[in-house]
Amino acid sequence: MKGVRISGSNLVRGGLAALSGLLSGFTALAVAELASAAVRPESGPITAVGGAAIDRTPAAVKDWAIRHFGEDDKLILQLGILATLAVLALALGLVALRYRRIGSAGVLIFGVVGAAAAVSRPDSTGFVDGLPSLAGAVAGAAVLYLLIGRLTMTRRPVAEGAESGWDRRGFLIAATAAAVASAGAGVLGRTLNGQRSENAVASRSGVVLPQPAEAAAPIPSGAQLRVPGISAFTTPNKKFYRVDTALVVPKVDANSWRLRIHGKGVKRPLTVSFQDLLDRELIERDITLTCVSNEVGGPYVGNARWIGVRLSDLLKEAGVKPPSRGGPADQLVARSVDGMALGTPVDDVMDGRDAMLAVGMNGEPLSFVHGFPVRMLVPGLYGYVSACKWIEEIELTNFDDYDAYWVKRKWAREAPIKTQSRIDTPKPFGRPKAGTVMVGGVAWAQHRGIDRVEIRVDDGPWRPADLAAQDTVDTWRQWSFPWKATPGGHTLTVRATDRTGEVQTEKRTKTVPDGASGWHSVVVTVD
Question: How many Cβ atoms sit within 10 Å of the Cβ of residue 415?
């Protein structure tokens, strides 16, 4: 019985075919990057496909990704897309060695998929967004067809039974040329896309925030407890959490930025520029923001000093009345430059709380990741219904007529922040020494304020914690408790009561549809 004979030459050609597929994929992405510079950076295939994947991912899966990967969730998604494309490119190269046209056509199909993803995005500007993916696919298919041709080309007659010849020199030259040209195209595209953002960077560098007409009161000296391990009362900008769907952080030129206010019940539609906002009366407020994806005891909450324009003033100028005063619109839809749409109750925006269009954060212009040039804030509401970054449009409508981005994905229409508390120190599974151990953390119930925090050790009674001075009802509040720790394993549990008398519920719920609830506990072993 004769075995199947696999020649060394065929193995080499198979490896080079797979390499050809990988090179064709690299060419496609590089040319698409260059082409996106002529359209807009967000039209690139990785961004488009990644954005489309985020749009179509179930809320529970998104929540899982945020919980496990945190702010690296977008990087993980991009790496996953690249890894998948690499595997598919290798496979197409092997297919093309046997079926040259089919393999090359496969590259074109992926270009069509990328183009479809680009034009389906909420921020799509039309069919032109699909051109980078298509241009890249054509270039990638051409490279694969050319390289496979060199692998299947017989340069000279061969004797019967001998291994087939192929154009080794021609393949090496073509592959090298394709790699160099693709790398050049990719670098040029990245450079051109970078230059597009230079105006935005320059506009931010030139911003000088005016003194607010209503400055925030000084933070009480007792608001920051001297307990090692407790969160800082004011969260530094670089440590402030970021949760959004933008794979590419928008970089908007403040000089060309405009905000349009229109819709139902708007008697006088407005269009304002960034300078228009700076020229208005600004307010400065300490406000704690919370992401609805924050698990019990999670990190997605932070406090900052914001400066901006009262949103209610702009709405009143436009002739808007809340439903409670006879206005026809009950929902304010805020849209960002990346296509995100958030829906906020009009009554909440105009009930006297410090809802604002923020232009500054902790004494600086907003950073790009936090929404420069302008973002919206509404104290007391989770970010997904209130904290629109890179805002460019406000439309007044009704909840019955329009479902915003997250509502379409099974999140609640309205989402007031739940009363929550967190133990910052000791850390879970910590090993403090026996004796007095300072337990400390933060509690929040924005727009209601924290009235009491209690600690329980194991199954013992609830004991009152010492509260730090309160800044405002819109900020979190620190607390501490001197625990007489005894050796062994212990469970520490915290709960808070807000100023309406509502006690933080023990019932554990997931973040979907309107935020997590339950008591935060940590397990420690006392030495």
Answer: 24
Residues contacting residue 322 through CB under 8 Å, at least 6 positions apart: 346, 347, 349, 350, 351
Contact 337, 41 (CB under 8 A): no
CB-CB contact of 423 with 492 (8 Å): yes
Of the pLDDT bands very low, low, confident and very high (cuts 50, 70, 90), residue 8 is: low
Residues 270, 257: contact at Cβ < 8 Å? no
Distance (Å, whole) CA 275 – CA 356: 16
Asked whether residue 160 carries a pLDDT value surpassing 60, the answer given is: no
Q: What angle do CA 310, 316, 319 make, to 5 degrees?
A: 155
pLDDT in tens, 445-487: 999 999 999 999 999 999 999 999 999 999 999 999 999 999 9
Token reading at 56: 């179509």
Report the distance separating Cα 161 and Cα 395, nearest Å.
76
How many Å apart are CA 175 and CA 457, to the nearest integer?
68
Model confidence, pTM: 0.86
Q: Cα–Cα distance between 31 and 26 in angstroms, integer? A: 9
Do 90 and 18 touch, CB atoms closer than 8 A? yes
Nearest to 396 by CA among 260, 259, 258, 262: 262
Give the side-chain half-sphere CA count within 13 A for 122: 19
- β-pairing, 450-457 vs 488-498, is antiparallel
